[in-house]
Amino acid sequence: MVSHAILQYVSKVDCPVSGAYAREQLTAWLKENDPFLETKVHRKIKKILASSSGKNARRFLQHFSSPSFDSLDACLEGLSLAQKEVHEASCFYTQVTRVFTHRQYSVAFVIDICAGNGLNGMLWLLSGAAQHVYFIDKNIETASGYKVRKRLDALGYASSYSYLCQDITHQESTIQELEAIQKNHHNGTGIITAMHACGTLTDKIMLYAHHTHMPFAVVPCCQKRGMGSLSPFSEQQNAVFAGYFTSESDYVDTLRVVALVQRGYDIQLCALPSAVTLKNRVIIGFPTKNN
Ligand SMILES: C[S@@+](CC[C@H](N)C(=O)[O-])C[C@H]1O[C@@H](n2cnc3c(N)ncnc32)[C@H](O)[C@@H]1O
Prior knowledge:
This protein is α/β, with parallel strands linked by helices. The protein folds into two domains: 3-65, no CATH class; 70-287, Vaccinia Virus protein VP39 (Rossmann fold). 48% of the residues lie in helices and 15% in strands. The chain has twelve helices and seven strands. It has helices at 3-12, 20-32, 40-50, 55-65, 70-76, 83-102, 119-126, 143-154, 171-184, 201-211, 235-242, 248-262; strands at 109-113, 132-137, 161-165, 190-198, 216-221, 265-271, 281-287. Strands 3-2-1-4-5-7-6 form a seven-stranded mixed sheet, sandwiched between helices. The structure holds S-adenosylmethionine (SAM). S-adenosylmethionine (SAM) binds next to helix 6 and strand 4.
């Protein structure tokens, strides 16, 4: 069924759906259209699948309502990390790899900025999706970050990651660091990731990605009007635009997307489940030839 046929079907049908073909089609639609997103149509399809008899459909839903990775659970055993942190990292990793795989973009290395606990980078390593991860954070002494690194060492990944203690507001040294990392990998392609990069840190990370022509995946948080966000407009235009948005985060992130498109980025948005985190917008950018 093509997309508009699915939408028509969903508007008529009520749960449960008995036909395997219909279940397969609804599952495929969700896979194609961001399984974590929660529009009216997404909610209806999930409700239909949840009450249907197909095991595969229910398993798929279960994974996408709270993705869990057996390999991660086993590797984290005994570390007593907060389940919320583990879920956030799993969902972020799931979405970013879904988009990059769909675009057939193979990743040699990941630069995880504002890495915090390091769980996102850990998943890239454990799954083999990247060969090397660079964790960057101004504070590398957190208890959870320490535990994750110790566990990575114990699992034999000590030479597969580097931990850089760096304040990314220092533009010159951050750019030097990123360029040095790129040089290390010759022609290997890397990505910059950052989950919950507070306030203008998100703008800085996007600018660093642009400067080094790298793709990125960022989950912004703590957006505030007039915080000097990345914006292609004058201050006066910004003020006028702001009046048309009820949510500060929508306003700030919209300006960011417009600015990145102007800089030659191909932008894709996706979501983390709002049950896992309310700061759940993932902005993914791929540099194009105009970058
Ligand atoms: C909200 S936490 C997010 C951590 C992790 N990505 C996560 O989602 O669990 C923000 C992280 O950014 C780091 N951070 C804040 N300001 C920074 C800066 N100027 N340079 C580098 N890291 C910074 C903090 O130390 C913290 O680990």
